[in-house]
Amino acid sequence: MRTPGGLFVLASMIAVPTGSIADCNRDEAHWLRLAVERVCPQPGLFGLDAQNAIPGSWFLDEIRQPDNREARRIVVRLLLPGADELIIERRQFNGRLRRFLVSYAAHDGDSARPSLQAIADGGCTVQSGRAIRADGDVWQYLDQLESDLKTLRWTETLQAPWPEGRDPGGIRVALVDSGLAYDLPMFRNRLARDGEGMPLGYDYWDLDPWPYDGDVSRGPFLPIRHGTATASVLAREAPHAALIPFRYPRPDMRRMGDLVARAADAGARILAVPLGSRRPEDWHAFESALRRLDILAIVSAGNDGRDIDKDPVFPAAFTLENIVTVTSADGFGRLASGSNWGAVSVDVMLPAENLEIVDFRGASGIASGSSYAVPRLAALAARLLARNPGLSSAGLKARILARATPSPFEREGVVAAGWIPDPLSE
């Protein structure tokens, strides 16, 4: 599980017996099948032609990525009777259809809420489906369906209320990622809480109090679960630290300034940020807020296999005194394949390949990459700070970099300070 190179960042999965979803999805499934039947086999059927293929629909807009005749992804949005929407997506390579997705979004006030999706292969045969459903005011689920769009395979949690518990004490570490499956047993008693027992943290993506794990930049039916896996490494290696989870604000990165301020107000001394992008404007608010605070940010160098001194990634390439940028090495001190480096921009590397992690389902797995170097270094920082709580962010950074040594198996100029062979060593 290596983090991709864009702005990057795995809902707990609940085992359920095979069954059928509610009949309320029957009409929605009809529209999905109609689109698969009439639009999918026609490679040039877009825009008004797609509208004509779906009786009673009205063309809204079309997106082509990239915007040329050889587009690899084409999305058409149609308005249905009753103001519901049909979103048709064609994914192709070298002009050949690879996957065809069609989603139904039910009208809900001023917006359309995604509810059902059909996934077809390059031969326009439906292979599976997904349904989003709510249960009460907070709980929300993603149902994985069979090709009939009604038989249930399994269910994942998309949103959940905070678990009850008490503040665990210890150094508070804020984790900025795709969120956290905080209802898993391993996290319930690791959450920093306020005086009334309410967990600290926030969802800056949806702007609500529940930062549950799920990066939906690929679409609401395809959440990426990254935050729980990184948090599991931090929780294991800093067993007495208290977690403050934040879901990063992909829709508006200007909110990162408010996020950093909120983390500091909550008592976080360490900010773990296993994220990055090539766009410095994504991180201006983050940089501006961070430079005013005595909080140490530990950020990922990224996993694009390049020198970020020459081709920067942010926030890794910022030169603030209270940022430490870390990349991944193997156990011998060699830069890991695919990990970024930089003699100026990257401070240290440490072993972060084939680490044991716990994913959003609570299942054990293996992951690699500089995203996982971040929680290892954040855990080291938390342990150092626990022993020396009076350290400033500059002092804490100095203690960390003092542990770095030249790697016996790597050329000079890969990172500024060297590598930390064993961040668990005391």
Please name the defining characteristics of this protein:
9-stranded antiparallel sheet, 8 helices, 19 strands, 28% strand, globular
Number of H/I helices: 8
Rg from alpha-carbon coordinates:
23 Å
Instruction: Give the percentage of residues in beta strands.
Output: 25-35%
- Give the domain tally: 2
By helix and strand content, what is the structural category?
alpha/beta
Q: How many strand units?
A: 19
CATH superfamily placement of the largest domain: Peptidase S8/S53 domain
- How are the strands of the biggest sheet laid out side by side? 1-9-8-7-6-5-4-3-2
CATH architecture of the largest domain: 3-Layer(aba) Sandwich
The helix/strand order is EHHEEEEEEEEEHEHEHEHEEEEEHHE
